[in-house]
Amino acid sequence: MNRNIPRVVIAGDRSSAGKTTVCIGLLGSLRARGLEVQGFKVGLDYIDPGFHTLVSGRPSRNLDGFLMSPEVVKEIFLRGCEGADIAVIEGVRGLYEGLNYSNDIGSTAQIAKILDCPVILVVDAGSITRSAAAVVNGYKSFDSKVQISGVILNNIGSERHGEKAERAVEEYSGVKVIGKIPRKSDLGISMRHLGLITATECENRRDDFNNVLDKIKTSVEKNVDMKMFFEIAKSACALKAPETRIFHARRSGSEESKVRIAVAFDEAFNFYYQDTLDLLALEGAELVYFSPIRDKKLPEGTDAVYIGGGFPEIYAAELSSNTQMLNAVNDFYDGYGVIYAECGGLMYLLEQLEYKPLQGLPGRRAESHKGKEGSFEMCGVIKGLVRFGEKRVVNYVEGEFLKDCILGKKGGRFKGHEFHHSEILLENLSNVDFAYKMLRGEGIKDGMDGIVSKNCLASFAHLHAASYTEFAENFVRSAKQSSL
Length: 484
Fold this sequence. Notes:
The protein is an alpha/beta fold and about 475 residues long. The chain folds into 2 domains: about 1-240, P-loop containing nucleotide triphosphate hydrolases (Rossmann fold), CATH 3.40.50; about 255-484, Rossmann fold, CATH 3.40.50.880. Helix content is about 30%, strand content about 30%. It contains 14 helices and 25 strands. It has helices at about 20-30, 45-55, 70-80, 110-115, 130-140, 160-175, 200-205, 205-225, 225-235, 275-280, 315-320, 325-335, 345-350, 470-484, and strands at about 1-5, 5-10, 35-40, 60-65, 85-95, 120-125, 150-155, 175-180, 190, 195, 240, 260-265, 270, 285-290, 305, 310, 340, 350-355, 375, 380-400, 415-425, 435-440, 450-455, 455-460, 460-465. Strands 12, 14, 15, 17, 18, 19, 20, 21, 22, 23, 24 and 25 form a 12-stranded mixed sheet that branches. The radius of gyration is 23 Å and the shape is globular.
């Protein structure tokens, strides 16, 4: 069966070209027109999809050509588009940036080709005019299978600047300029050391955040030809729906047979993939959310705890002061409850979190962290501490299970990613039980990751359940077994 969904990829000529701002403005503008608009993000980013979700009113989803086969990319895309009128896919970094220089795996271009999707290229034209045409020509000719169907010029200094750059691009590259966005410092969303400040945090500053969103939407509506945008989106060919491989109902069972997985979700912990949560639910999990910052106990009837990534360092003082929740997590662990934690969750399970605010990093419009400096007591489930530094780890990872654990069997393999500015210092390292050997990536120590203790598994590696397809089944099974 073929599915015809208008769609477009918003790609950048480089990182920080402005594609996130443009994408948010488009989502807001389309929704204001009464359309059901579905957002997607290329790559493994958690933060941009959070903004997509807030602005569009629909859960945004990730598409990644390294983690996922082309069939799975299509399945996630078409499933996400159910009930939507149009799809907007935000790219990652520059259009052709991926896993390595020799092919397009992991790139925005790869996803555009898999989904047979027209591309609108956002060009940072802050100090160029005729050169903008050379940039567009280079991107257009680099891969003839990538459909560059329109250009948005960003950071335009004046009306004359915009006109000159537009004429150059259209005359020399033959690609239509559909938007010229002026340089405005007040349209940015605050940056942090790994990307944007999270949407969950912005929600707690509603007045300021809504004001910024309104300005972004107004700027896009004023400076982008929305009629041409729709024409480009509608030019996308119908997609042949692949055979369902992942998202089929399996062990949903009766309400009585469901397991309750308590998911940590607040300003400190909010790095979750929507498709991972969906797959857990399809396996028969009832997901209940709690805040390690504010709640005093785990949700009633919890069978397992899932603590995703985030920025616990920014909220270390609040997390540490909530001793009732620290004790509740520790008691659950002592009772052999199943706990799975990724990166920020791993930090929360340690004894101490040592934090010194990081200053702005090169190439980023970064603001200093707002967290308090000091050493803060965490749960103490894992003996050791986390310390923050300037080293930035951002990797795709591949790993192998060294032993059976709550997520897999010895010899199994997975793909995922890691990104952090932290170092884990463990007590009695020789006695630490690691579940993962990293075949690619750094892990916690010497290529080892996934600390196992009782029914707890905590790692730097982030997993996506559509990539490591045993994730949801094994997690839910482990939760059921522990509750018997």
